[in-house]
């Protein structure tokens, strides 16, 4: 079902034109390989939102070869952390000792060459600039607005969440916990 779902996604995307395709997360890892088979010149990128396991864990997966082959079909594979990117490159080097890796851009980006194709692997952390947000939270404008809210709401507890409205986020359960 996983392979078929990825094939169907790729089929649909292939019919939308020849622009760059950016695929997100593990559910769609094989989309790149399916697209690459249809259009070898298309630019295809992938971002993994979950940690990539270290080699000793990854190689316990029965589908490890298929997963790595699918990831190597992308032009760019992005990860949350440098640790994840390094784990990916380590796994590739173990199954493809002929692959060469060179680090670019201060080490956050690596380019690997395997079977005549170049694939870039990068660490692209998703998050906020905590220092900037903390500084802004202490600003006079924020303090004024906070006072206004306290006047408007009185002596109440306020819970603020910024979440996708997605059943996997457990929003009803979190509200019940509060």
Mean pLDDT: 90
Sequence stretches where pLDDT stays below 50 over 5 or more residues: none
How many runs of DSSP E, i.e. beta strands?
6
User: Could you give the order of the helices and strands?
Assistant: HEHEHHEHEEEHHH
Overall geometry = elongated
Q: Figure out the total of helices.
A: 8
Q: For the terminal residues, how far apart are their CA atoms?
A: 39 Å
Strand content: 15-25%
Radius of gyration over all CA atoms, rounded: 22 Å
Binned, the helix content reads 40-55%
Which class do the helix and strand fractions yield? alpha/beta
Biggest β-sheet: strands ordered side by side in the sheet = 1-2-3-6-5-4
Give the biggest sheet: 6 strands, mixed
List keywords for this structure.
8 helices, 17% strand, alpha/beta, 178 residues
């Amino acid at each position: 079902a996983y392979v078929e779902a990825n094939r169907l996604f790729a089929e649909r995307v292939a019919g939308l034109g020849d622009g760059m395709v950016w695929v997100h997360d593990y559910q769609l890892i094989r989309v790149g390989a399916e697209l690459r088979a249809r259009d070898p010149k298309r630019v295809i990128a992938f971002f993994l939102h979950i940690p990539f396991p270290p080699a000793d864990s990854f190689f316990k997966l029965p589908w490890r070869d298929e997963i790595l082959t699918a990831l190597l079909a992308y032009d760019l594979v992005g990860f949350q952390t440098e640790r994840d990117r390094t784990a990916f490159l380590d796994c590739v080097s173990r199954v493809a000792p002929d692959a060469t890796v060179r680090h670019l851009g201060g080490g956050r980006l690596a380019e690997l060459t395997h079977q005549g194709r170049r694939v870039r692997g990068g660490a692209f952390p998703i998050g906020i600039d905590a220092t900037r947000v903390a500084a802004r939270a202490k600003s006079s404008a924020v303090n004024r607005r906070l006072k206004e809210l306290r006047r408007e709401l009185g002596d109440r507890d306020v819970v603020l969440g910024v979440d996708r409205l997605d059943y996997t986020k457990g929003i009803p359960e979190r509200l019940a916990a509060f």
